[in-house]
User: What shape does this take?
Amino acid sequence: MMNGVGRGASVSLNDLQKSYGGVTAVAGVTLDIRSGEFLTLLGPSGSGKTTTLTMIAGFETPTDGDIAIDGKSVVAMPPYRRNIGMVFQNYALFPHLTVADNIGFPLKQRGVPKAERTKLVGDALELVQLPGYGARYPRQLSGGQQQRVALARAIVFKPRLLLMDEPLGALDKQLRETLQLEMRRLHADLGITFIYVTHDQEEALTMSDRIAVMNEGLVAQVGRPEDLYDRPDNHFVAAFIGESNFLPAVVRGFEDEVVVAEYNGSLIRAISPSKQRDAGMKVILSTRPERIRFADGAVESPAPQNRLNVTVTEAVFAGERCRYMLRTGDGSSIVLKEPSSAAIRRREVGERVEISWSVADTILV
Ligand code: ADP
Ligand code: MG
Assistant: This one.
């Protein structure tokens, strides 16, 4: 603890904007990142993630808006004075320096004496699980090991904020999953604030305390992984995180928190987490494929259910689960995913069947 402040910095972005000539990279991002939080900026390529991160680091100057770290505006402060660690996708290690000298570089820049440098570099190597690698050169390390060295270099000077831009993007899937777990552990050990950028929704869901979903230079929604998955605020988030079925409907009435909407002659009950809806309004119903069940034979849930009659148009056995494509009365498609079991009868193409799913799993977006 320093001066009664937590080990991690808090970061406030207030209507942050960046334009390059006619191109708007960041259109007005407002976001409060808490001390010690693991927050991920998740979004498709070009949504403004890197630009947001480089403005926090101080390598780009905002066109408008403010960035405050621990409540103080840093917009006029040069990058080196912000005391922020950074890791990029390309490891950006100095090829002619040993691992120890790479990691010690930020300490040398800050005038830390040699003996202390050696100790801090040793500690950092322990933290990233590379003890004894100090004398090697980057070319003698695998991609995963190089990225661990980059990580050690970013935390060796004990920053209170670590920014990472797609740091695992260049690694294969298995190594990526190992390093994801290591990053979580490191975050817990260090207790500092992590702001992590990725376009990979699975990575974001696995690692983050909270996720800010970005689209076209704006935050589409911010929340815990389960909030974003179960209660997407809008069509973009429902489609970008996981898989969703969408059906067009019209609002017909209300029952307490539940909105009653008409889809192709059937009444469907839904939750509207974020927006006020009025009767007659056109809306989109959104439901996850694994939350839908075949109604016949299934053990009925006591929770209120929606029901529809459909025809099976595609049935795919995919090992751990079966994936069905279903057609509704108006010709819309619905995907249903069912855990596979030798005890469950598999449905055949052409079969007419009733499906059901919980009102709580039906979201208006
Ligand atoms: P992301 O990291 O989410 O892929 P970026 O922040 O890199 O997105 O870019 C957001 C948008 O801003 C893109 O359309 C990109 O082409 C544009 N952009 C980013 N940097 C520059 C630059 N230096 N000059 C012009 N346009 C840029
Ligand atoms: Mg980027």
